[in-house]
Amino acid sequence: MKTLDQLLQERLQELESASLLRNLREIDSPQGTSLNINGSCVLNFSSNDYLGLANHPHVKSAALAAIKQYGTGSGASRLISGSLAPHHQLEESLAIFKRTEAALTFSSGYATALGTISALVGPEDTVVVDRLVHASVLDAVRLSRARLRTFEHNSLEDLETELSKTRTSGRSGNILIVTESIFSMDGDSAPLTRIVELKQKHKAWLMVDEAHAIGVRGSQGRGLVQELGLGNAVEIQMGTLGKALGAAGGYICGSKSLINYLINKARSFIFTTAPSPAAAAAAKAAIDLCQSEEGEASRKKLWQNIDSFKAALNFASISQLPPESAIIPIHIGDERVATRVANQLREAGIFIPAIRFPTVARGTARLRVTLSAGHTPEQLNLLCSQLQAILQSLTPSDQVNP
Ligand SMILES: *Cc1c(COP(=O)(O)O)cnc(C)c1O
Questions:
Q1: How many other C-beta atoms are found inside a 10 Å radius of the C-beta of residue 11?
Q2: Residues with catalytic roles
Q3: Of residues 275, 371, 346, the one with CA closest to residue 49
Q4: Tens digits of per-residue pLDDT, 352-369?
Q5: Ligand 1 pocket by Cβ (under 6 Å)
Q6: What value does the mean pLDDT of the chain take?
Q7: Cα(296)–Cα(96) distance, rounded to whole angstroms?
Q8: What pTM, to 2 d.p., does this model score?
Q9: What's the CA-to-centroid distance between 110 and ligand 1, angstroms?
Q10: N or C: fewer beta carbons within 10 Å in the chain?
Q11: Cα of 29 to ligand 1 centre, how many Å?
Q12: Are the C-beta atoms of residues 355 and 367 closer than 8 Å to each other?
């Protein structure tokens, strides 16, 4: 018999030879358009801090004030003695922001999906998800023991086929459709208006994960569901407080009954210590900022950056698609080539890690460029020229299809 360590060494070796080994990089600076890695400063195009709120003075001072007033730890779960004023203030702000009856926050977006989906569906139910939906949703469905069906990415036809099949199969359970409004690795959006039509026709429920839309899309950054006027048709609106909002945690916005039910049944909400008061206060300050004139100006700046970067990216096919988010994938395909390109960019002082399996499917490795309101035109130009030079230097055997 091999020891545990021997076995793990072998498995790590396999990952390494497939260019799939991952390592942590220690960053010695706040999130921002540049990062300090191992003593050198690199331009950062990898963060989901789209509005630059993760290191914003107002957000930081709100966190500090909460620490002064409430300390660092919440001491217990929300249902014991950990439900502090900052959590309630955050949830009130979220419900007003998202224009829903109520909101509930969790310690992360991942915990939000896990607790919510497993509370709402069980073995008799069916969950129909877009093939590219986030890992947290897939793990949640597995945990719920509901039947999992996937539809081709953004294919209404395939979704309708799955819905009809489930309805005519004689199964008695409910159907929950789950999709993202902006997809995390491709940056494209879901056809939500049409999905709502299908959901109504087939009497299914709909959950939309707005992780990459909140703060970015919709008036004052309320997300794509709000932008499309679908707030009343989406029962479960999910998102994270850790990306554009620059804090930490996840949320569900919806009806009072939904929130009261989750308080009673979502195990990732119940059996965990409440998030720190600092995180809750930071998220609330970020939501306020999002709706301020300053937030409006940052969003405008972000969209200008997205537009100008896509226009300058005329050597990549992605530039032909309309801009939908701050995520711009440069498709490479082969994991080894993607890793090499990422290393070359790094040598040129630009940080964009290669996104590989299992985050995306095998053979679809990519550079996932994320833009922030804080990037300057000079920084965008530099990225464009370096990308172009590196991509053009690849040989045909690299089979790149950017
Ligand atoms: C990041 C992400 C999550 C998880 O949110 P965290 O707060 O980071 O745990 C969920 N869904 C999607 C689509 C995401 O991109």
A1: 10
A2: 48, 134, 180, 184, 209, 212, 243
A3: 371
A4: 989 999 889 999 999 999
A5: 108-110, 134, 136, 180, 184, 209, 211-212, 240, 242, 250
A6: 95
A7: 17
A8: 0.96
A9: 6
A10: N
A11: 22
A12: yes
